[in-house]
User: What shape does this take?
Amino acid sequence: MSETIQVEVTPREEVSETAVLEVRDLHTEFGSRDDPIAAVRGVSLQLHRGRTLVLLGESGSGKSVMARSVLRLYGRNARITGSVRLGDVDISAADERQLQAVRGERIALVPQDPSGALDPLRSVGSQLVEVLRQHGIVPTRAEARDRAVELLRLVGIPDPKRVVKAYPHQLSGGMRQRVVIAIGVSCNPQVLIADEPTTALDVTVQAQILELFGALQDSLQMAILLVTHDVGVAREVGDEIAVMYAGRIVEHGPTAKVLDAPAHPYTAALLASVPTPGIARGRLSPIPGRAVLAGESMSGCPFAPRCQRTVASSWLVEPDLVSIEPGRFVACSNPIRPEERIAS
Ligand SMILES: Nc1ncnc2c1ncn2[C@@H]1O[C@H](COP(=O)(O)OP(=O)(O)OP(=O)(O)O)[C@@H](O)[C@H]1O
Ligand SMILES: [Mg+2]
Assistant: This one.
């Protein structure tokens, strides 16, 4: 082989350990075939044991659709293609029974809107007990009850012995969110997909939940896909960041590199539009224009109309996500070069 001498620059994250979850070329469309709404347009990513990948992007970029599509949580109105492999299970080819077996136990989703995730007619405790019993986590109902209280305590619910008996409508939105997180982590899944899990929570509870994820990750080597539009959270918990725009990943790489020296103009614009804790950035500059909506017709790069670095080809072809350095990928015809990044 010709490349045998080029082995010295492989960073740790490049060492190809087997991914726990591998998503390849995922597409999700809604609506009719004649007039489809393409919400996710060819996303590929891998999650590794004990590591967190953050999916960052503006509202409407397809983050939630992507998260739900991985678990195939859509009915017939969605067309999902591409492959999703969870260890030895090919989720993309699994039937409903196989999906039921892996969901919750090996891969869990904390959905963005917790209200739909809880049964309004049953107490919080009975819902937690059911999940624990269903997956055989605890042998007896009494132990499941104790474990349910313990899980509620873990997610920062004060007075868990009272809350375990409560019905969802008796709890505040933030409390319900924490109950949904407790259900998500209850079976110690290998993979946790958490869709904006802390957005509705105040800062102290947010820190507590992120700490809980960190602790579970340390003890169980859980792989986490965290969906957020909060750059501060992304920086704090992400090993890697994938930035999504108009249904595709436009930049992907190690957290510090993506956030400190973005290569895609959209990432740079996104960072300039939000306050960064601890860093004085002067005035914030909102991204001009608006994001394309899923289903809107477009040609070329979907960010081109809002971008200050467009070149002729930006209007003609949508760039592929290509490697710019080991572990780092960008989809742009005119990416920000390293020397420009240092100068800015
Ligand atoms: N069930 C559905 N049917 C049709 N279109 C949908 C459906 N769900 C989502 N979409 C569309 O797909 C696009 C992506 O939505 P998605 O909810 O994934 O965005 P998001 O990145 O999670 O945004 P946010 O940050 O606001 O949560 C949006 O344009 C949305 O309107
Ligand atoms: Mg969302």
Remarks:
- The longest strand covers residues 37-47.
- The chain has a mean pLDDT of 88.
